[in-house]
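Hi support team,

I'm opening this ticket because the web form for multi-chain structure prediction keeps timing out on my end. I have pasted the exact lines I submitted so you can reproduce it. The total is 226 residues across two entries, so I didn't expect it to be a heavy job. Is there a limit I'm missing, or should I split the entries? Thanks in advance, R.K.
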Amino acid sequence: GDSVTQMEGPVTLSEEAFLTINCTYTATGYPSLFWYVQYPGEGLQLLLKATKADDKGSNKGFEATYRKETTSFHLEKGSVQVSDSAVYFCALRGPNDYKLSFGAGTTVTVRA
Amino acid sequence: EAQVTQNPRYLITVTGKKLTVTCSQNMNHEYMSWYRQDPGLGLRQIYYSMNVEVTDKGDVPEGYKVSRKEKRNFPLILESPSPNQTSLYFCASSFAGATNEKLFFGSGTQLSVL
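Hello R.K., no limit was hit. The queue was backed up. Here is the completed structure from your submission:
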C-alpha cells in the first residue's frame, strides 16, 4: 500500500540555520503530497502541498518539490526561526483514495 | 470561523468504561476521519466516512466504533477501552471532490486509559 518514510528526528538547530527534512514515498499512480505542521498543543495544519510531478509547494518560507524520479518531497527552509519549532509530517493521498497516509513525524527545535 | 471541534480535550478513564469523543465540523465537508497519534508511529487512521451513513475501517479500527448520522458530526466510540488505546486522537475533515484537498484537523483529545 501507499506509504511515506521521513527523516527521523529530533532535529535541533540554531536560529537562521538551514533546515532540510527528507521524505520519500511509495505509491501507485500519481499521489498528492503534503507537509503538515503541528505546533505544541495544537492540531495539524497544512503547510504546503504539491499535486503533480515537478510542482513546488511553498509557504512561510518553506519549500518542497515533488520529484517523481526519486519519489521524494523533501522540505526545506533557508533560515529558520524559533517560531518554526514544531513537529513536521510528510503525507500523501493516492489518486483514487481520500485516506491521508502520514510519515512518523520529525520534531524540530530551533534555539535562539 | 471554519473549524473542526473535538471534545473533550483531555480524558482520563478506566478500563472497560464506555466513552465517546465527539467531533463536529462547520464547513459542510463530506469526508471525515479519525486518527490516533503515537510516538514514533505518526498518525494512523482509525475510521473514515465519505458521507452520511457511509463509514469504513482505516488501518487500526479494532476496539473503536463510529457513526455518521449527520453530515457535521462524526463521534468516536470506545465500547470497552483498554490501556493500549491511550493515545492522542485527532478528528479531521475535508471536501470529497478531489484527493488533493487538504484536511482540517481538530485540536486533539488526549485519552488515558488506566
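A quick check on our side: Chain B touches chain A at residues 4, 31, 33, 35, 40-45, 48, 50, 58, 90, 92, 94, 96, 99-100, 102-103, 105-108 (CB under 8 Å). Let us know if the file doesn't open in your viewer.
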